[in-house]
């Protein structure tokens, strides 16, 4: 099952990888405006913010990039947890609560003790304020691509494009998963196990 999940994630990432982008012109050696441009929409700016609020583009792109990264981690977590892959041991020894006791789906957060939720929030604060500050708009925190510093601008643009587009897909995916779970009352695992792919069906099939 673990190999199946890994193969699924790799295939999903490859499916959303865009075509190589052009060479760059910024300090990152890639053009931020050209990044994430997907045909046939091109530069998608229906509200004209690039013209009316050009100074806000950098922050909005940083927000999009960070939300995409969080959403990609969330999608991986949902897939892994819905396949009942959990850590061994206890989440809270004092409460006699094991990791395997946490239910899948959105209800899982309600099973985490208050002290555990506070630890998560403190970790988020550490990441946002010190480790990977939100004020650093380029999103480059010095960790490279799995430890490697990409020097070739075309390769860097292609990987940054893939990150943006995969992040967009992940944001849609995690939101769709949560909404569908609330609508159907079934977790991802329960929906697929029952063949209940459509949220408008009766649970007996695709439709």
Question: How much beta, percentage-wise?
Answer: under 5%
Q: Specify Rg, calculated over alpha carbons.
A: 20 Å
Number of helices: 6
Q: Termini, distance in Å?
A: 27 Å
What coarse outline follows from CA principal-axis ratios?
A: globular
Biggest sheet character = 2 strands, antiparallel
Number of strands: 2
Reading the helices and strands in chain order gives HHHEEHHH
What low-confidence regions span 5 or more consecutive residues with pLDDT below 50? 1-27
**What is the typical, i.e. mean, pLDDT?**
78
Strand order within the widest beta sheet: 1-2
Indicate the percent of residues in helices.
40-55%
Q: Report the structural category.
A: mainly alpha
Describe, in plain words, how this protein is organized in 3D.
The chain is mainly α and 207 residues long. Helix content is 48%, strand content 2%. The chain is built from 6 helices and 2 strands; from the N terminus they run αααββααα. It has helices at residues 2-15, 49-52, 57-82, 114-131, 153-184, 188-193, and strands spanning 90-92, 97-98. Strands 1-2 form a two-stranded antiparallel sheet. Helix 3 packs across helix 5. The two termini are 27 Å apart. Mean pLDDT is 78; it is low at 1-27.
